Structure formats: structure tokens, C-alpha cells
Amino acid sequence: MSARGVLRSGSLIRARRICVAAVVVLAALAGSPGPAQAEQPYEAGPFGASDDQPLPPGWRIGGAGGAPELVWRAPRAVPMGDARVEFRTGDRLLGVPEPAKDGRTFRLALGETRPERLSDLQVTAAGRRLDAAADDTHESASRVPRLPAQPPANGVDPGRPGSYRTVTGAYDLDPVRLPGYDTPVEMTAEVVAPKGATGSRPLALFLHGRHETCYKPGAEDDVTGDWPCTEGYRPIPSHLGYLRDQQLLASQGYVTVSISANGVNAQDWQAEDAGAQARSSLVRQHLARWAGWTTHRSSAPAVVREAAKADLSQVLLVGHSRGGEGVNRAAMDSLYPPPAAEDGYRGPVRWKVRGTVLIGPTIFGRNPVADVPSVTVLPGCDGDVSDLQGEDFVDGTRGISRGTALHSAVYMVGANHNYFNSEWTPGEAVAPAGDDFTTDPEQPDPVCSPGAATRLTAAQQHRAGSTYIAAAARLFLAGDDRVRPLLDGSGSRAPSADPARVLTHAVGGRRSGGFLPDAGAKVTGARVCSAVDPDPAVACLDPETPGSSPHFASWETEQETGRGAVDLKWSAPGRAARITPAEPVSLRRSQKLALRVFVPPNTTGTRFDVSVTDSAGRRVTLGSVQAHGLPGSANTASYWAQELRVPLSAATRAGLDLRHVKSLELTPRSRSGRAWLMDAWGWAPGTSAVRAAALPRVDVGRTIVEEGDSGTRTYRIPVEVSGHGSGQVRVYVLDPDSGRAENRLVTVRPGSHAIDVPVQVKGDTLYSYDVVHDIAVKAVHHAVVGKHRGGVTVGNDDPEPVVTLSPVADRVTEGESLIWRLSVDAPAAVDIWQPVRVLPVTEGAELSTKDVDPQWLKDWSGEAPDPERPLSDASLWAWLNIPPGSTGVDFVVPIVRDQVAEPTESMRLAPTDDNAEPLPGRPVLTGTVLDRP
């Protein structure tokens, strides 16, 4: 059916108005879809002021071949970083867009998402808005950021160089092919090792994060994400950025190797897991070579033969940013093998990972390895992975396995993301580099702008990073418990890291008897809040709160189950908050009670009394704790829990039954305030022997099917469960239209089909878009998750309708309307989009901005008729939409009737591509307006 006039029984076709550079883009959006039957026609028209808000600046609806894409163009290039660029509508994740070569344009196929659902559009990367500045107007002027006090020096300082001489050199092996990556990935590395050391020495392997891959020597800013590098460009040696860390470790007796991953960085944008499996494969490819070289020294590269022999039973993996998630996955894959089809290494595991160091890491999969000890460095001024999601390498291990592995978070005030790598640091890097934390020079950030009292210099930051990497090596590889107080929340400092202010907390180790809000605990005098929830009354932090919390970083869904905190808020001292676990906990082998608590940034002097009650009803106040907020701003994730400890000696003296403690109370002693309790544990010094549990592993695959022409078929989302034993995972089923999720707790066993998600596919002969039916999986108890997201992609297999633009009324008199019709040769099941553009006339007089209805001009272009100018100078570019079931839409240009004698005037209209260029071989149509006699 072709249609004409105004649709009276449904909604008008409407348009959102946006501005990209100097071009005003007019996107015609559909109202309610009409049935494929005779009816009144649709008329393309813009949104009125009372209808809806326009798309924000920089956004437009685009797409080739009728399939709509949501397109955002940044005002300047977005650096190639580790955080994923994501499109969101409010709190809901729309998807991960594809970046263009220019570094500014990002495109996301809309699929089944209706354009009218695109409200509150946002571009984020690790929770940080890329399309808007952070709002710091709520911050109290009296809350001035202040540096935390320096804790006392630890007895052992791991940042001091050792006595070994070192040898440095490189190796470059044949590249390897990894599943899903078209271009082979390099096997290049830099080795720094002790020279002349006797016996086998522990091995520390470094993996850098995601960064530009190539640069043009002599050019100020000419970098690319290509691989291999094109002529005239050289590889950016990101793997050389940890030489100082390597040299410190080598002087202390460790063999170190830093591997290059440019080939992964150039291709991981198209990987569903953002490259985690590929990085794991690359790490294990290198470890396999080292394992072979220990037994066949003559086959090793020269630098390896010259270095001390590596002990592959003592391996530390160090990863920066996406490299952090990569080495976490390598530790997982070394214990729980991944599906062979997804893995780029299939040989034996001849090494043992004793620990990981994760620097400003991503954790898109929210899948930490609970039985491998870890240290996660959280940079307080991270401008890349700015939500500090790596906190989940600590929080996410609770309740998963035995809880004996120590998982430490190291919050480094004033550190940014890049300066842990000297090849990402201006003045040190061979390629262009910059500070990832950027703010408006006219409104400097009070915490993180260079020169702020709380901001570290590059040299200070790198030195502090080296020190804490060495601390992890000394604890996890050498077993030296004297460095543990630097990592486990004990409040000691390493003088080598001065003047950096470094705070730590931890879970695992010799902690026991946890009070956790997520384990069915009853809470009175406070509320249990949800880490991720769209309802401000339920969420732990209101979305309007300046700044954010690493503990509440968002994931794949707008709402998560079983992840929260205890939120305390009081206006007078004395009202206790009581946490009563589902079962009494035992603190019998503990010396202290360790609480992880945070208060709002820049606040001081929040005090609590801490009390416990046993099953017999005996209640004892253990003592008081005091919390100060971290330095923070609207741009930082400073709502971070500090570890506060109180001795249990008072409970022992009072005869409390520490084997059966039924409740914990926090009683505020400050006049007013707010605080959040993440958890509380019995604490004892030392670390426990760690033995990895035999766990089931879950990996979600992807099946791609065609819809067919008729009938209904049922497919199931492919899920592989391997490993040993049984465990529990939470499965989120994502609605392909709304993006909202339903979830359920599932018990999994190897070879089982407990995660059974059927997808019904109805065949038809109407053109449509591909539809993605996905699930996301998180481990809950006694399980690990590898590839966390996958599903069934239903591909359209029907031909795209042929789109034509034809005149309906192209020769009219003043006071009438020029009309063109956009038509398809067959109705489709989805919106069909086609842009048209007003072009300058090639002969005769052109219609001016005063010849068309002024409201029409304002609605479509945002401009006024004055000063009078040719209509094509209004840069009108209209995205016309043919709704599902319809075969046409009219584009109507109302012409005003005036009293001025004028010659015959015209305008030209052409269908274009999504860059506003007229389509080759397609006619340019002319509309003519005659002067009324």
C-alpha cells in the first residue's frame, strides 16, 4: 500500500533533530507500526516541542541498506583505551558500538530496538560519560579533598633493589593464530633476569593493556589501531613500558618477561569477551615456550640462555588494564581448561600460577579466579577504567570457593591509568602519549588535575607501582609474610612508594566467619541496598550522586541480584545498625574483627562503636573505629571501603562464645552521617595454604541461525559445563527488545544441561533485522565462569526491499506543498530508513528559507528564516522512515503564499548514503514552485 496525507488512526511519523558539526540531521522516527492493509498515508514530520526531546548533539540514526544504526560522533578522537565504549539508555546497556578508523565515530546496529525507546542516551566507558562532563555541582564546598595520613612504615620494604646483576634482551618468535582473529598475533617479548643466580628462579610475566598499536615517527599525534603496521608506521612497544618493574624484580632474583599483544589490541573490538580469551591464549603460549626452554636450554633464545633458569612451578602473572583481565583468564584456563574451539593454546599445563597482580584492570566478565591469590591496584585518578571495576577481583571472590586465597585491593590516591606504563607516559614514550585523566582546564579537578596536592607525578606513580608489584611477588612467590601488612588492610606503608598514599583492604587469607549482606542476613536500623538497580530507593548510591563506587560498578544488566551492602544513614548518634546472619558465624580462631566500610569522599571523623552478640544473648562492645573519606570529586570512584579492625580481646574477657556469634552492631557516635558496610570478617595474621578446588566451569557459546520462510523452530543457547563437581551460577536472560533481564539461580554439573534457554524462531518472508537472544552468567558458589555471555543470533534471510524516491506533487503554486514519496516494493517487518538531502539547484532561482513555512523550517533545521538564504544552505538532511507493514512515507515541504512577485523557483532532493553523499546512479529530483498570480 502506498499512502498519502496524515494518518488519523495512529501516530505521525516523527523526527528527532540533532546537530553534527555544521550539518543538521533530521531523523524521521516511526510512531505506532501500522498493519499491511489499506489506510491513510504516513507523513514524515519532525518532533514538536511537546512531543519528545531531540537526540542529544552528536547523535543520529544512520545505517546502510535500511537497517538502522545508532551513530555517535565525538567532538574529538576517543583514545584507544581499555574500557569498553558502550551506548546506554539511562541505566540500560544498549550495546558495544563498532569504532570507525577516525576514532570519533561509533556505530551500533539497533536490531529490534525501536528508535522511540532511545531516551536518555549516554556514551560511557567504565561508567564515565564520554558525551557529557561530570556534574560536580552537588559537592559541598566545605568538603575539601585532603590526603590521607601516612601509615607507619612496614618492617620490610619490597621496593628496594636487590643484589643481583641483571641481563636484558628480547625474543621474537613466529606469530600464532588465535580463534576468531584473522591476523596472526606476534610472539614478541622483553626479558629482564638475574644474571649468575644459582638454581631455578620464579618467573613473573607482564601483559600490557589495550592501547594504540602503531605510530608514525616524527608526527605529533599520528597513531593507529592497525596490525600489522602499514608502511611508514612502527609498532608502539607497549610491552617495554614495565622495564623498571622488571629490573627491580630481576635485581631481587626473579626472571621476568613482558610480552607484546598489539595483534590482540588491533582485533579485540569484535570479540564478545573484549579479548580476554585471546590474551589468555597468548600468555599460555609464552608460558609453554618457557616450560620447553627449561628442559631444552639449547633451543631457547640467547637472552633466555644467558639468564637464570626459570622455575615454572612459581609463576606470577602481572596484567595492566585489559591485560589484567587477560592474565586472570590465563590463571583460570590453567586450572580449568576452556572449550577447545575457543582456545588458542591446547597443550599441557606445565606451570603453576601462584598469584596475579592486576593494575587498573577491566573485568567485563565479572569472573575472578577465587583460588589464585591476587593483588588489584586501583588508581584513584584512573581516566580510562574509571569505575575501578577491578574491585570485583576482590568482592567477586566471596563465597565462590574455599576462601583461603588472599585477594587484596590497593587503592593508590592520585594515580592515573597510563603512567604505570612508561610507553604510555608523555616524555618517556617513543610514541605519542598522554594523561588519560582529562578535565576542562577552566574547571580543574580538585583531586586529579596535574598539580593538585593529591595527584602523583608520573615518576612517583611508577615507583609506587613497582613497589607493590614487588610486594606481591615477595608474598606469593617467596612466601615472605613480612610484606603481607602492605597488602591486606593492616595499615602499613612501603617507604619506597612515598609520597604516594596507598590504602588496602582484602578478603580471604586467614579471614573467617563473614557478615555479608548478600547471604540472607537480617538488617535492622539500616537498609540492605543493591549495588546495581535503576530504582534510587533500592540502589546503594543515587545515580545523581557525584562520583561513584568501585563496589557498585555496573555490569551487563541494569539490575543485579545478590550484590549489595548495608547502607547506614543517621541524623543523631546512638541508633545501632544490627546485622544478623542466617546462621551464627565463628570467630574462634580470629584475633580481630575486620570491617570493610566506606563513607562519602572528603568527610572526616565518622565514628562507630562495634559490638557483637553470641547465640546466648551476651553482648559485648569490642571498641570504636573511625573512618575518613578518600579524596574525591565527581570524576573519581572514591566511595571505596577501608579496612577497620577492632580486637576481639574484650569478647574473650567477657566469656562471649566466639564459635557462635549471631549478630554484629554498628552504633554511630558522630552527630550525623552516612556509611556503607560491605562485609566484616574474623581476622588473623598470616596467609593460608591455597589449594584450588575442583569446580565446574561454565562457558556460553553462540549459535547463528536463519529465520526461514515459515513455521516455528526452537533453538537452545549453547552452554558448555566442564570441570568437576557441582556449583551454582546465576543466569540472566536478556530481552532482545527492552534489554531488561530475568534471572534465576541454577545448579550446574559437568555435562549437564541445567542452563536450558530455548529460543523460538518464527519464519516469514518479510525483510527484518538480525535479532540477538543473549544470556549472561555469573558464578555464585563453587563454580567458575569463562565466557560469560552468548546466545542465539537469528539472521534475516529475506531480501531487502528496493527503496525508491518519486514525486507526488513536484510542480505546485505558492500556498501548496511539494510532496515526494519514499516507497519500497514490498512491506517489511521492521523500519526501513533512507536519508534524503536538499541540494543546491543547478539552474534558475532556488527556494529560500522565507519560501517555506517558518515553523516547518524551525522544526526540521532549528533555524529561523532570517537572514534569508537558499534553502540548501539550511543543510537539511532528513532520515525518512517507512514503518513496519507500510510501503511508503511522504516528505512534505509546505510553501508559503506571499505578496512578492517572484520568478519560478525550485529545490532539489536526493537520496544519500549515511554520510550525506548523494547515492551514485540515483536520480536527483526537482520540485518547482510557481508564483501565484
Describe what you observe in this structure:
The protein is mainly beta and 933 residues long. The chain is 9% helix and 34% strand. A hairpin with an 8-residue loop joins strand 12 and strand 13 (185-195). It is globular, with a radius of gyration of 31 Å. Residues 1-41, 45-53 and 138-142 have low confidence and may be disordered.
How many helical elements? 9
SSE-based structural type: mainly beta
Helix share, percent:
under 10%
Radius of gyration: 31 Å
Task: List how many beta strands DSSP finds.
Answer: 53
Write down the overall geometry.
Answer: globular
Distance between the termini: 37 Å
Largest sheet: 9 strands, mixed
Mean pLDDT comes to: 90
pLDDT < 50 runs, ≥5 residues: 1-41, 45-53, 138-142
* Relative strand content: 25-35%
